[in-house]
Design a protein that fits this description.
The chain is of the alpha+beta class. It has nine helices and 14 strands. It has three domains: 1-208, no CATH class; 221-307, Signal transduction histidine kinase, dimerisation/phosphotransfer (DHp) domain (Helix Hairpins), CATH 1.10.287; 315-462, Histidine kinase-like ATPase, C-terminal domain (Heat Shock Protein 90). Helix 2 runs antiparallel to helix 4. The radius of gyration is 49 Å and the shape is rod-shaped.
Length: 464
């Protein structure tokens, strides 16, 4: 059942991508604010403090001159101060106790007197043109009521301050707008990709294992994630199909032996009632139960190996010894079918693995070769190495497994049509999972003499 989609604002509220974009914008603003603050201190506050210290020192000197020397000495000092070359223009105004201007180049001044530093407009006129100046001034009222205001030009500092503040405001607004819009679009783009994953997951929940995550071909993180998820879904679909086939196959395989066992037990009961000998019937029933037991043991062993629950002993194993043991075991059966086992083995070939599982794998291959070989033919058994792997080869004369069946013969209970059903249909399955559990693989090949089954295993060491 498809879940309802949230509205846009609710989606943004709970969208991790949008929240991440907001956090990124906030972090950018904080970082940008710190940069502006450092720039403000370096370009505005520090030169501002320098000017303030300079004006404060001048005020102290001029006040001392007035207190000690009087008005004339002060006015003379103020004139010299204005005429003295400096990187910052000097401004002042001196008022008597009645508020009349005695001297100065300030067109206006604040009233009443201000405590502390004050920024004032200090416009100047040159050739009839007004030139704006911003000045940092200090104000002092003397004991006799006279008032002195002195200052220095800070027009450049004021302009830098205004520029930095405007830059901070506009950058902040732009960052918020672009971050918000970018966050929305990024959230929508990422949300679309995530929704594709959710759609595939919902299909699986509803039982449709064919659903896959859409890939854009951008080869980005989402495409890599989609590829991994699709591989997982394909594996799940394959596993579920295999489980379904196994269930059907198990039911089919067990129906006949269970029916025979049931009939044998009925015959056994009837014979016992009549006092007839029952030993043969008991043996037949035991044989059927042994067959059923073999089926379940093989299925269990395959399942344990596939799922990794079978503890595989990783020890050095000499394949030459295992092959010799397997050949010795099946030599009498081969001779009983008028078959010749042609064995070609090196002196030693070492792999790391479970000797019991590897021996069972080789035995299954020899058993299959003997069952399906033509009477009087030769079965070649070779053990070779190269490119870091060992190759165990069992070669029959004849066509072997038809090419159209080779992909499926390793499935549980699969049998090639028009061939006698002599086994459980699990031998090649066990061979395949054992080889793969040891890092190898099972292959089929047509040869000059007929057909070969090849098992490759990683070598641990090779000494011929």
């Amino acid at each position: 059942m498809r879940t309802s989609q949230p509205n846009f604002l609710t989606y943004l509220r709970f969208s991790f991508t949008f929240r991440l974009a907001v956090i990124y914008v906030a972090m950018f603003m904080v970082s940008f604010g710190i940069l502006i603050a450092l720039s403000y201190w370096s370009m505005v506050m520090r030169p501002y403090d320098d000017v303030l210290q300079r004006v404060s020192g001048e005020m102290d000197d001029l006040a001392y001159a007035y207190v000690v020397g009087g008005e004339d000495i002060l006015i003379n000092a103020l004139v010299k101060r204005v005429d003295f070359p400096s990187d910052r223009k000097a401004f002042h105004v001196f008022l008597d106790k009645d508020g009349n201007r005695r001297t100065g180049n300030l067109p206006s001044w604040p009233n009443p007197p201000q405590l502390g530093p004050v920024e004032i407009e200090a416009d100047r006129y040159f050739g009839g043109d007004e030139i704006d100046f911003q000045a940092l001034s200090l104000d002092r009222v003397f004991a006799d009521g006279a008032r002195l205001i002195v200052g220095r030009d800070i027009e450049d500092i004021a302009e830098r301050r205004e520029t930095l503040i405007e830059g901070l405001v506009w950058s902040g607004v732009l960052a918020i707008v672009l971050g918000g819009v970018g966050g929305i679009f990024m959230s929508m783009a990422v949300g679309k990709r995530i929704e594709s994953i959710s759609d595939a997951a919902r299909k699986v929940i509803e039982g449709d294992l064919s659903g896959r995550v859409e890939m854009t071909g951008a080869k980005d993180d989402f495409d890599r994630l989609a590829e991994t998820l699709n591989m997982m879904l394909s594996r799940i679909e394959t596993s579920m199909e295999a489980i379904s086939r196994v269930s059907d196959s198990v039911a089919h395989e067990l129906r006949l032996p269970l029916s025979r066992l049931h009939a044998d037990l009925e015959d056994l009961a009837a014979a016992a009632d009549k006092g007839q000998p029952v030993a043969g019937m008991v043996d037949t029933a035991i044989a059927e139960t042994d067959r059923l037991k073999s089926v379940f043991e093989s299925l269990l062993r395959i399942a344990r190996i596939e799922t990794g629950r079978h503890s595989i002993e990783r020890e050095e194993v000499d394949l030459v010894h295992l092959v010799n043991d397997a050949v010795d075991l099946y030599q009498p059966e081969a001779e009983g079918h008028a078959l010749h086992l042609a064995v070609a083995l090196p002196g030693q070939m070492i792999v790391r693995g479970d000797a019991n599982l590897l021996f069972q794998m080789m035995s299954n291959l020899l058993d299959n070769a003997i069952k399906f070989a033509r009477q009087g033919s030769v079965i070649a058994i070779d053990l070779t190495s190269g490119e870091g792997v060992a190759r165990f080869i069992v070669e029959n004369e004849g066509a072997g497994i038809p090419p159209e069946h080779r992909q499926r013969v390793t499935e549980r209970f699969y049998r090639v049509e028009d061939t006698p059903s002599q086994g459980l249909g699990l031998g090649l399955t066990l061979v395949k999972v054992t080889a793969e559990a040891h890092g190898g693989q099972l292959e089929f090949a047509d040869t000059d003499r007929g057909f070969a089954v090849v098992v490759t295993l990683p070598l641990s060491d090779v000494r011929d």
